[in-house]
Amino acid sequence: MKPPSFSYHDPTGLGEALALLSQYGDESKVLAGGQSLVPLLNFRLAAPEHVIDINGLGELAYLRRTGGTLKIGALTRHASLERSDLAARHWPLLREAVRWVAHPQIRNRGTVGGSVAHADPAAEIPVALVALDARFTARSQRGTRTIGWRDFFSSALTTALEPDELLVEVEVPEVAPGSGYALAEYSRRHGDFALGGAAVLVTLDGSGACCGAAIALLGAAPTPVRAELAEKLLMGEKITEHVAAAAAHAAVDAVSPSGDIHGSSEYRTSLIEVLVRRAILTAAARAQGEDD
Ligand code: FAD
């Protein structure tokens, strides 16, 4: 299929892109990697009058560490994150997450900003960013604002971004020393969107007890969600099979994933419970320095 006709704009700088967004607002769509937008256009599920291609905004493609915080420019390709030594060393959950995204060809084009702005509840990068307590910076001609993950993801495929705003940067706080990580998911074919999953961070103290936990669920709700009751259950505990199973059970108690032809709500709930338990155990083992 072919997309409906639109006017194409290719700004060469951020100021020009923001001026176009201010002028065309909700009649426009930003084009980043195009790996979600182009299929939507071709299936005619989106019909913007203006497409604003931000691929000329090289200044938005970067990964840098500033005062312990990772800053990821919105135009950073999935593949750059996957190959980043900085991410591998300090934020390995992000590298593990991005490896689950689609196929290498898609990761070469797809961008971190596009994945976040598209806000698919089954996307790996947003769920890892929610586990990592990320913040998102949006720019428009009206100014700049930074939004925490709780306020950023509003619903399936919907974020707090206004039509004239461009997501420019993702900020990821430092991860506590002694933390282990894991992203567990299941999809029927390699590279497909997952039927469910979980991103987990576990921090252990000197005695091996849990002193920090983040559990974010993938495909469990219209947005990535944190399983806060389950996180509390881990605190102060040595992570045994029994403790992980109890936390995983609590994690799915509060959610009701929607069912479709790929899996019923009940199937997805029990799948996510299994994946949360596995991710907690893997994260705890990694926190103790055990190899996979
Ligand atoms: P685009 O497609 O260019 O844009 C997506 C949306 O975000 C559009 O609405 C666009 O206007 C908006 N947007 C983009 N950048 C910005 C910005 N900076 N500010 C404001 N709005 C912006 N993803 C997964 O997570 N897991 C998978 O398993 C997976 N499998 C896939 C399999 C296939 C076959 C394909 C084609 C895609 C798959 N994807 C998957 C999606 C892929 O990761 C996309 O790259 C990603 O969702 C969107 O990134 P993009 O840069 O391509 O954005």
TrEMBL record:
- Annotated FAD-binding PCMH-type domain ranges read 1-177
PROSITE patterns, sorted: FAD_PCMH
| Keyword annotations from UniProtKB, A to Z | FAD, Flavoprotein, Oxidoreductase
Q: Which SMART domains match?
A: CO_deh_flav_C
Task: Note whether Metal-binding occurs among the keywords.
Answer: no
Q: Does the keyword Oxidoreductase apply?
A: yes
- A Pfam family of the record is CO_deh_flav_C
Judging by the UniProt lineage, the source's domain of life is: Bacteria
**PANTHER family for the chain:** XANTHINE DEHYDROGENASE SUBUNIT C-RELATED (PTHR42659)
Identify this protein by name.
Xanthine dehydrogenase family protein subunit M
Provide the species name. Amycolatopsis rubida
